[in-house]
Amino acid sequence: MLPLISREELRKGIDAGTLVVVDTMPAGYYEKEHLPGAVNIPGFPYEQAAEFTDRHAPDVLPDKAAEIVVYCANVPCRNSELVGARLLRLGYSNVRKYREGIEDWVGAGLATTSG
């Protein structure tokens, strides 16, 4: 299980530019809506999460020491756990998970981005 980050801590990190945020939803969902500044590494279908992470991480996460936060839709969603665990196996040293996901973020009235 990945270490967790709270919504407030995540919001502060995004505002300060100190976090690299990774949306682990399929590309279509990412295009529709994601947290500000987030990059995309799809974690679904689950069977392809490791392959997608291996393919996309070197391009979107060049700094293996960066503070990285992965998220997906909500608490039951497994995408972020699969991608985050794979990032750790690939040598990324500081990976946390926003367990509550984009549903919690939007429910709190916080801004998202599209495209």
Which strand order does the major sheet show?
Answer: 2-1-3-4
Uncertain spans, ≥5 residues at pLDDT below 50? none
**DSSP, total strands:** 4
What is the helix content?
40-55%
Shape: globular
Query: Whole-number radius of gyration?
Result: 12 Å
Element-by-element helix/strand order: HEHEHEHEH
- Average pLDDT reading: 97
Q: Give the termini distance in whole angstroms.
A: 30 Å
Description:
With 115 residues, this protein is of the alpha/beta class. The chain contains five helices and four strands; from the N terminus they run H-E-H-E-H-E-H-E-H. The chain has helices at residues 7-16, 27-32, 49-60, 79-89, 101-107; strands at residues 20-23, 39-40, 68-71, 95-98. The chain has a four-stranded parallel sheet, sandwiched between helices. Strand 1, helix 2 (27-32) and strand 2 (39-40) form a beta-alpha-beta unit. Helix 3 (49-60) packs across helix 4. The longest helix has 12 residues, at 49-60. It is globular and about 35 Å long. The N and C termini lie far apart (30 Å).
List keywords for this structure.
alpha/beta; 4-stranded parallel beta sheet
Question: Can you lay out the helices and strands and say which pair or pack?
Answer:
Layout: H1 7-16, E1 20-23, H2 27-32, E2 39-40, H3 49-60, E3 68-71, H4 79-89, E4 95-98, H5 101-107
Parallel strand pairs: 1-2, 1-3, 3-4
Summarize this structure briefly:
The protein contains five helices and four strands. It is of the alpha/beta class and 115 residues long. The radius of gyration is 12 Å and the shape is globular.
